[in-house]
Design goal:
- There is one protein chain.
- By secondary structure, the protein is of the alpha+beta class.
- Helix content is 40%, strand content 18%.
- The chain has 11 helices and 13 strands.
- Strand 2 and strand 3 form a beta hairpin.
- The longest helix is centred in the C-terminal third of the chain and has 22 residues.
- It is elongated and about 80 Å long.
Length: 287
Amino acid sequence: MYQNFKIRDNASQPIDLVFRLFSGKTFQILILLVLFSGVSLFGQKPIDDLTKDPEIGIVEHLDEYLPTDIYLTDENNQRVLLTDLIDKPTIINWVYFRCPGICSPLMEGLAQVMNASDLVPGVDYQVLTISFDPSEPIELGIRKKVNYLNLVDKKEAISKGWKFFVSDSASIAKGTNATGFKYKKAGQDFTHAASVTVVSPKGKITRYLNGVNFLPFDFKMAVIESSKGMSAPTINKIMQYCFSYDPVGQAYVLNVTKITGTLILFVAVLFFLVLIFKPKRKNKQHI
């Protein structure tokens, strides 16, 4: 458009420079840089903010080891070290026993998959359910355990392999931080996600299972991989991006705004790439 623009004097040079800047590839590349620089679009946070740990949810700490100074109180009201309990693949389940929301469905899901699995609890693996509310007594955990044992057929085996605990605030903080379990006090209750952490016999975090329902195959593979010290990432990062936790409904909901913004951003980037790299048409010679 401005290829035939002639500079008549020195004063017109800045104008010509601006025209050339905004009509060529330089401007298109500038647009791409802006798109990738983390500028907020459609009410979204900058890209750097998306990499920060969530206030509520799960941050995977794969291949990290549990601290050796986390103390728990067991069903016999005895004080024990968490790492002393781990001598086989172990599933750590953070809940609070008087939870009115997803804790109950989560523990029901654990009971069901333990009942359906051909692995033997207490032999092939164990489940440690720990309250992250320091005010709860172990008696409340014992009553909860009895309730969930009534849902299964393999009562004796599951009772041996599924142990309930409470703890003090310092050990709870160390344990939840080590496993990446993020929660927040909300009045008399807590807002938190539904997830369990799989730990190897040597105390290494190898897997996360998210949600309240677990497929027997996934459960078995997580235990087998843990027994070998093999870690495997989940789709947790994708789930965190596409879904947001609703503390009112106490469930994960699809984040339509974020997904739509991402799709629009992708289409915009694709459009500008086409503009930059498509072959230019040769100008026809006018007779």
